[in-house]
Specification:
The complex is a heterotrimer. Chain A contains eleven helices and twelve strands. By secondary structure, chain A is an alpha+beta fold. Classes of the chains: A alpha+beta, B alpha/beta, C alpha/beta.
């Protein structure tokens, strides 16, 4: 696989050059936060960041997505018939995605792409995306990727991995998609052994910087109903305000709602992110709600991530350790602590 | 304000041991810097969880709604005003509460501190009197608390609780010479297009997580208007008109009730200046009706009284 | 790639008002493209999303049997946005059906066994599908005795009245129709709640499987009756309802533990449910 070295200045030019082939998304400083934005003349990529405030999941799975369209105009031959909307799946590349966020797409994949059903929008946009990761030289204190099957230089879900070597980026192709990307990324030079060694050294050092260890080893062996009835849920849930921050910032939360919206006689069927934190999520037409209480909804979120997913997919926990929920929960509900409670409690 | 912690613990222990309350609601030190967690304890041996510093930003009044037990609760100025509002709006009974009053010098704006250290990661914060020190991997900086207060705290004129059963310390000096509505006046100066642009831009990052609503002690409706489905008033996509509808309507539901506790703005994960939606209404309430929310149990809330001297014609 | 969210266009062929309160109507649909009928190949117990442009979708059990060709039927209670709109539609109107979705009653397991069907209220729809299916001459020999306990609040609230009367006349199915109460002096069937009538009429669990569909309260009180007669939890089959959107296990709202009611259900045995969190 190709390994190339680019000076940082050169890299910015390379990205501009790639704009003919890909829609390029890069981290951009926006007020207090970094966010992924489509690269154009007005945007300055900033690769000096811990992570973006919002995860890049929306680039594959937008918060609101038109699924279908229709007309209710009775004069139209196809009145009331629901039809697929035209979509643009031209190639895009997320450059600078952190390994935890790329890993997250792998965690989410079996939900949208399984033997029984394939979600056409998620799959097509996922397949049209090249994931160009940036390893984390300096992981944050709330990061715990190494506890959940990832790492600051994990290659899971990435097509290219970038190593920040100070003045240069070492770019390593990991897949055919990544090879194509580096082929198009004109310039740079073949990486020498020194650079490759430097990259490997960085990666080893970074993993050691993550001191937090969250234990997930016993989750699989727990009995679902026992964990469900564990005594700690009331305490865990007390502070929660049942907002959607954790679920909307989470790169591995995938739940959605489907809504029809009309303008005049033209309508769209739209899917929107939804959250298990909201009572409406499970409210039956009859008025009955299996998760009417806050504690039930809080439990659902953690049970889903740390037990149901584990049991269903045999693919670890539904968490990539990015730490966004830990940093941003207004009530300081900390998944690391809850995971430990669940991992111990019998 | 650190010295309050011990006194809060003592008071809570006494209340729980004497059986004066069933539970005590306060804050616990958070697992990440500048993020304390609301906590409920029901046993005197848990009082060491209780903690107080300038990072107690969520409004505890949220946790009172619908409770039927006897509750001890810590309350600074704005929280106490929300408790008053909760009582007058029949969300909790006065005799259920034992209010431990906290004279408050304001809460630290964690985002402003982050900005001050150029977004470097803060691993620890230490407070001493009127200053605090933040530490990270390769830096340590000390600031005056008063320079890094939440914007609502900067213009707060009710730092001392308006209602309490016991005070944790003598009252602090109130800020008198503040212009609470400077920012509102700036917006009032704008022409309608500019105003629309201001508010449109303010919400363009909104992800409809409803943290502002859920952190707001006034937003206790069993079903919020955005969640109604029969009929559905507001679309659920991130269409800007729907998002604007949510923010404007929510603000109007808070008219004459908002105490400017700042919880909405503090919790917003994308940094929307949400108080700009409610503050204009606070200003109107004050200027037109000499009304500030939650100051007394003796008056009905502004928008559920009729007064013959109302300045509007249509109501007479 | 097959889009699992795209409904088949259908035309409302016939509407029958089933109950005296007019809240339950049966809709018979014909596929606009005849090939879609083959694609919509279902088994009794499954459901589908009824899809109305501009309103949304509603998951409804399939009331017709695969042995009834040329159309597919659903009996719909008027509850929410979609079902209210559907009740206001008329024969000839065009809408969509998406499915079939979910699992089905354990037909292979039921072969060679006595089948006990217990239904209450408007949850009788997939049970109708099952009865029609079993009574089909090709299928009837596969099952032994078929007993049905079906109850509604009063005679006017029973679904499929003509068919019930017809089944009463047959000797290859034992019908036990009941109502909670009635002031009709000519009522010739049972009076009493479904659990009570079940206790009176279903006296043996030998080589039998019970399928139970009804409101939660009925299920709650029928369950101990069946257990008393000797039905082990593996042979008590229930069909659950949940708020659903996608119907294919992706949108995340209808889970009970790690199972999705839309994809892994709606049909579960009581034995399965006992190992799942009681969150439904």
């Amino acid at each position: 696989m190709t390994k190339k070295i680019y000076t940082k200045k050169e890299w910015m030019e390379v990205l501009k050059g790639l704009a003919d082939t890909y829609k390029i998304f890069v981290p951009v400083r926006d007020g207090d936060f970094h966010t992924f934005k489509a690269l154009d003349e007005t945007k300055i990529p900033d690769f000096d960041f811990k992570n973006t405030q919002l995860s890049p999941k929306s680039l594959v799975y937008p918060q609101s997505e038109r699924m279908f369209e229709y007309t209710l105009d009775e004069n139209a031959p196809d009145a009331n018939i629901i039809k697929e909307s035209k979509k643009d799946y031209s190639p895009q590349a997320i450059v600078g995605i952190r390994p935890c966020d790329a890993h997250a797409f792998q965690i989410v994949k079996p939900n949208f792409d399984n033997p029984e059903y394939q979600d056409p929008w998620w799959i097509q946009r996922y397949e049209s995306t090249t994931f160009v990761g940036l390893g984390c030289n300096d992981p944050g204190s709330t990061c715990f990727c190494t506890s959940v099957g990832g790492g600051p230089f994990s290659e899971k879900g990435l097509d290219v991995l970038l190593y920040d070597l100070g003045d240069t980026f070492l770019a390593k192709a990991l897949t055919d998609k990544g090879e194509t990307f580096l082929e198009k990324a004109q310039g740079g030079k073949e990486a020498d052994e020194k650079a490759i060694n430097a990259g490997e050294g960085l990666a080893a050092g970074a993993a050691d910087k993550i001191e937090v260890r969250v234990h997930t080893d016993k989750l699989k062996d727990k009995v679902q109903t026992e964990l469900f009835d564990a005594p700690f849920w009331d305490d865990v849930a007390f502070a929660c305000i049942n907002c959607g921050i954790c679920t909307y910032l989470c790169p591995t939360c995938w739940c959605f709602d489907i809504q029809d919206e009309m303008v005049g006689k033209q309508g769209d069927r739209i899917r929107n992110w939804d959250s298990c934190m909201f009572p409406l999520f499970t409210l039956h037409g009859s008025g009955h709600n299996p998760r009417s209480k806050k504690v039930q909804r809080v439990r659902q979120r953690f049970m889903h991530k740390l037990k149901y997913y584990v049991d269903k997919h045999n693919n670890g926990v539904q968490c990539s350790g990015c730490g966004r929920c830990v940093r941003n929960c207004p009530a300081n509900i900390d998944i690391r602590q809850i995971c430990e409670l669940m991992n111990v409690e019998c | 304000m650190l010295e309050y912690t011990e006194k809060i613990r003592e008071t809570a222990r006494k209340l729980l041991e004497e059986g004066k309350v069933d539970v005590f609601i306060g804050y616990k030190k958070g697992s990440v810097p500048m993020m304390n967690q609301p906590v409920l304890i029901s046993n005197a041996d848990q009082v060491d969880f209780l903690y107080w510093d300038s990072n107690c930003g969520l409004n505890l009044c949220n946790y009172l709604t619908g409770r039927t037990d006897r509750i001890g609760i810590v309350a600074n100025g704005c929280n106490s005003r929300n408790i008053v509002t909760h009582i007058t709006e029949n969300q909790i009974k006065r005799d259920q509460l034992y209010i431990v009053g906290i004279p408050c010098k304001g809460m630290i704006d964690h985002r402003a501190v982050q900005r001050a250290v150029k977004q470097k990661e803060i691993l620890e914060i230490k407070e001493q009197g009127d200053i605090f020190t933040v530490k990270g991997k390769d830096f340590e900086e000390t600031f005056n608390i008063k320079d890094y207060l939440q914007r609502n705290c900067l213009v707060c004129t009710h730092r001392n609780p308006v209602i309490s059963d016991e005070m944790i310390a003598p009252p602090v000096e109130e800020q008198i010479e503040v212009d609470a509505y400077k920012d509102v006046k700036e917006i009032e100066e704008m022409d309608p297009d500019k105003k629309w642009e201001f508010f449109t831009r303010a919400i363009d990052k909104c992800i409809r997580c409803y943290a502002c609503r859920n952190a707001c002690p006034l937003c206790y409706c069993p079903t919020c208007f955005v969640d109604e489905s029969k009929p559905q008033w507001v679309g659920k996509s991130n269409d800007s008109i729907d998002t604007m509808t949510f923010h404007i309507l929510r603000a109007y539901h808070c008219a004459g009730r908002c105490t400017d506790c700042g919880a909405c703005e503090r919790v917003c994960p994308v940094g929307i200046p949400i108080r700009q939606f409610t503050k204009k209404l606070n200003k109107d309430a004050q200027e037109l009706f000499s009304w500030e929310a939650g100051l007394t149990l003796d008056q009905r809330p502004l928008l559920d009284v009729f007064r013959p001297d109302d300045y509007n014609d249509f109501i007479r | 790639m097959k889009n699992p969210y795209l409904p088949y266009p259908v035309r409302i062929d016939k509407i029958i008002t089933e109950t005296e309160d007019r809240n339950l109507r049966t809709f018979r649909f014909v596929f606009l493209n005849s090939k879609d009928e083959e694609k919509f190949s279902y088994t009794p117990g499954q459901f589908a999303e009824l899809s109305i442009a501009g309103k949304g979708e509603s998951p409804i059990g399939i009331a017709s049997s695969p042995t009834e060709k040329g159309h597919v039927t659903f009996t719909v209670n008027k509850v929410g946005l979609v079902t209210t709109r559907l009740h206001n539609m008329k024969e000839g109107d065009v809408m969509g059906i998406r499915g079939p979705l979910g699992n089905w009653y354990p037909w292979e397991e039921m072969e060679g066994k006595n089948v006990v069907i217990i239904g209450g209220g408007f949850a009788f729809t997939t049970l109708r599908s099952s009865i029609i299916y079993m009574l089909h001459p090709e299928n009837r020999p596969r099952f032994k005795d078929i007993s049905v306990v079906y109850g509604a609040r009063n005679p006017g609230m029973l679904l499929y009245k003509d068919e019930l009367a017809e089944w009463e006349q047959r000797d290859d199915i034992h019908m036990h129709i009941t109502v909670d109460g009635t002031d009709d002096p000519d009522w010739k069937y049972n009076i009493g709640f479904v659990p009570t009538i079940t206790e009176q009429k279903i006296t043996s669990a030998d080589n039998a499987i019970a399928i139970v569909c009804g409101p939660p309260i009925m299920i709650k009180f029928t369950q101990p009756v069946l257990e008393k007669v000797g039905f082990p939890p593996e042979r008590i089959i229930l069909s659950l309802e949940m708020r659903m959107k996608c119907g294919i296990g992706m949108c995340g709202r209808c889970n009970i533990g790690d199972k999705f009611v839309c994809k892994d259900g709606p049909v579960f045995s009581l034995a399965q449910l006992k190992n799942m969190p009681p969150e439904y």
